[in-house]
Amino acid sequence: MAAFATGVLVALLLVTSCANGTPPEGEQRRPSTGTASTSLTLDDEPWWPVGLNAYQLGTDWRVNTGCGAQVDLDDYFARLPPNTLTRFNAYSSMAVDEDTGELDFGPLDAVFDAAERHGQLLNAVLANSEGSCEGGEFKGHGWFAGQWRTRVLPGEPMSYGSWVDTAVRRWRDSAAAAAWTPVGEPEPSICAAQGCDWQARVCPADAAAVVRAFVDEVGERIRALDPDALIWEGRAGGGQCGSAGDDYAYVGASPGVDVLEYHDYEVGRELPGDPVSGLGRRLAQARALDKPLVIAELGVHAGTCLPATERRELVSRSVAQLRAAGAAGVLFWAFVPDPRADQCTYDIGPEDPLMTLVGR
């Protein structure tokens, strides 16, 4: 009888815990991320993230072809202050066993699990327009106009639409799942007969309308599956096809977009920038839309071209200027486990001085 009573008490405690929104003992609570006008919030407090891009985290050479070098996940996340935001590639191609061709979620599961263990936050990018680290095929106008729903591209196990459903359902309950980015740097241009390099592509007149319809539908899809997560737009933010000038605000006004982006590789020269599609214009558009704009990629070459300590000084000044100008956060490009110090690259290694700037 005592054992029965104890069991009932435990069950009641679990029910009460769930009703109060408190996770059972041993489970981590998912921090609440949100927006307040042009700012981000974390657990309803102002949040200005200084985080990292670490696109390689899902690489596991025992399973997938990956995307770059393999990372010691526990070592990576243990180096970061709590609640640091990491943006990484969570592509469907990384959930495929390269030997059998079968689905294997292990490498991506491991990223979410390690982030949870170390109290970290993730922004999962579900695909990219260029096709790099996927199957290499450019996702252009036809894909954004509707092929994404059903077409299975080379190197991918399912259509993008199916992957959105699969990925969000699988990881939405992770304490580390802070945000989703539908596509990195979407560009609905058309490849020319001579090739698909960006210089040869043609931008159709309806490019902005196509991207807007895409983010409307995919954003609604993600929101239905994970109402609590933030949806980042993924765009580079400059004069790219579908984003130039006023098109940036037209697409950014979508209800499927919570957070606007700008990718900054002109550090020290980005403000005010080009009056049509520069960062100053983008920040003004974000204010008009009442949405936060994050510098989702901030990259500065270092190595043989610039000492890492000087890069840190430059980036530190730039971060302060970006914050004062109204940006809602910064993510450095890009962490790698094997930085090439003998070359001029964007690499940020584990011991790079930039790592001391990372944090909440």
UniProtKB/TrEMBL annotation:
Task: Give the source's domain of life in one word.
Answer: Bacteria
Q: What is this protein called?
A: Beta-mannosidase
- Species source reads Mycolicibacterium parafortuitum (Mycobacterium parafortuitum)
